[in-house]
Structure formats: C-alpha cells, structure tokens
Amino acid sequence: MTWTGDALMIVIALVAAFQLYVSGRMLFYRGYTVRQKLMQLLIVWLVPGLGAILVGSFLAADSARPRKTDTAFTPDGGNNPPGVSPPGT
C-alpha cells in the first residue's frame, strides 16, 4: 500500500474512534431522553466526522458545570424597581 493509502486508513480509523467516543458519552449522559439520544446517535453515524464534532460540542456544552450563584446578591422581594433599595436599608 502507498503512503496515501496508509494515511487514509489512519484518518478513517481516527474518525471512527472519535465517533465511538462521542457515542459512548451520549449513551451514558442522563440529560437527554431516549429519543434525543437516538436522533443524535443517528447524526453521529450518518454524517461521519462532522456529525460527531457537532454532537460532541453540544454534549460538552450541555454537560458543562453550571456557574456558582452570587452569594452577595440579596433579593428585595420584588416590590421595588431594579437598583432601588427598600426604605430603611
């Protein structure tokens, strides 16, 4: 086999390995319904390479940790316009 044939086989193997990785992450992710998982797995395998990149990026965005809440914020109960403190505070 020529070096171009070897390079092509390596690229195909890498794309397949990445698709398997994204598929595994998708199967064990609890944030999607079974139908959503099935549709995204179809995208991964019917659109090789690009489908796995897209689904993997959406999965990474959905599974990112949420930001911590601001503990310095004190709600005023909703009776005053934004930025205006209640009387006596």
Quick recap:
With 89 residues, the protein is mostly helical.
Describe the structure.
58% of the residues lie in helices and 0% in strands. It is built from three helices and no strands. The longest helix is centred in the N-terminal third of the chain and has 26 residues. The termini are far apart.
Helix content: 55-70%
- The string of secondary-structure elements, in order, is HHH
| Estimated share of beta-strand residues | under 5%
Q: How does the overall form come out from the CA principal axes? A: elongated
Structural class determined from secondary elements:
mainly alpha
Report the total helices: 3
Q: What's the story with the biggest beta sheet?
A: none
Ends apart, CA distance between termini: 80 Å
Q: Give unreliable regions as ranges.
A: none
Number of strands: 0
Radius of gyration: 23 Å
* Mean pLDDT across every amino acid position: 84
Name the descriptors.
single chain; 89 residues
Can you lay out the helices and strands and say which pair or pack?
Elements: H1 3-28, H2 34-46, H3 50-62
Helix pairs in contact: 1-2, 1-3, 2-3
